[in-house]
Amino acid sequence: MTAALREVLRAMIDGYARQADADAGPTVAGRRAELILAEAALRHACVPAAVRPPQLAVLGPTQTGKSTVVNLIVGQSLARVSPLAGFTVSPQGFLLGGVEPSPGWTSALPAEWVRRPIDGLASGAQRRAATPPTSPEYALVAPEADIPPPAGLPPCVVWDTPDFDSLAAGGYLGGVLEIAALADVHVLVLSKEKYADLTVWELLERLAPLGRPLVVVLNKLPGEGGDAVVAALRGRLEALAGPYAHAPVVRLAYLPGLAAGEDAEILPEVWELRDAVATRLKAAHAVRRAAGVRAVIAARWDRWTEPVEAEAAAIDAWRERVAQALAEAAESYRRDFLDHPQRFDTFRRATVELLRLLELPGIGGPLSQVREVLSWPARKLFAARQAWAARRIRERGVHRGAGSEETVLFELIEHLLTTLQRDAARRAGSASPGSAVWRAIVSRLDQHEGRLRMTFQQAARTQREEFIPQIHATASRLYETLRARPTLLNTLRGVRATADAASVIMAIKLGGLNVNDLVFAPAMLGLMSMLTEGALGSYMTRAAAQLKARQFEHVRTRLIEGVFAGELHALAAGLEGEGLFAITRGQLYAARAALDTWEDSADG
Question: Do 315 and 395 belong together in one domain?
């Protein structure tokens, strides 16, 4: 049920990581931290509560004594204590009360995490010096069987975590957020120097929507001044409301031997701490995690998805620009070819086919043979001249079709690609949201320009051949109309025979013209006048208009929409590149729907 949601959350985490690498600022880093917490919380919430033992996370900024507090809670010196800042950089879990690590909940930890013995965990200095960087690590430690946990503490897992406020914390903050998402109860360890740090309250604001119980420990307090610090702390907790408004605050005085466990058992504050933790751990099964996960994600969803929506809007804008450019191309084809009196040759081709149908039985065939024989030298010379012209065009790097329609279409293709490249480059250079999409599209246009041109030109030639049956059909309809007028048909056949003889003479005089040229020679004017005048003329005009309309629709659907649109829209599919999230709007909708309908297994 939550697979679509987890997929989008992970994709946004990766996307914000790429933006953070590009020095996009603290906002990006903050959103990525929120997403890491949300994805981890969702993942752990899908583990049944019966499988997962109660979990306690001890959190806090550097040098506040988190490891000392862990040892005070468990009643043993298990966590490694060091005076060095940033010593602990890997989560360390301590299994209390005979709890064994169950695959049902440990398998929900990140797959890249490596479990090691606690003595095998790298320190902060070792992690920073490691080349290449080591994989994230964690430890799960079971204390000696004959040393029970403190009275009142239920079987549970207590986690010691790294700091989240040092300069190096960005390298292991994910581990802190992972354990915070896993935990049923949070223990926040602060000091007089750290309780007001911005990073502390940023973390609490991220954790608050989860609804997990909180216990605050004010550690290393001096003999005087503690009341003022506690009062200020309580005021800020009440401002956060929710589960933090009435969170208990336990004060621990600064005692040099406390880290080693000296006098810990006789301090009433230590028993107060254990009692507060035990009470909340025992009630952990009543915490309904689904509501907290939904609250975390829903509260920040619009903010997280801003750049994703901007990318989707940019892709929509590209599709709109392509649609506009294709509409302009269609009108250009209509204007520069179909409505151009010299270039539009389609109906003339239909007329030539009609003239072929007007051949007189027994006369048309021999005349055609004579025409072919007499015009053969001229046609060979004409073909050689065309080949020479085509070779000169190729040498200049300009491609042109043989006919007027191909010439118009090829020029249209050049204009289409040039216009789209220019517009995409202009938008790619701006600082507006979604500009990364335009940069990726420009890159693809540059990469595929040659292939697109060849594909479009070949499609233009193909559609011209595909339209030939429509030309023949028009000629056949014209001929059937003439058959309904036998007198006019016989007159036309007579003129047709004369025109054939005249065309043979003209072929000799002009030095070689093809049949299409000959049929429109002066000797054919009488024939064409008879076709276009009188009652048949209006029918010819309608036939020409219908043929033009069918050709426009054919080019629009088969070429412009059938080939051009698909290739150009594909340029914005599956984009990859710097600063891109590559998440579709459909994935966003599916993820949000999964969140709205999800109920975690712990809620039953």
Answer: yes
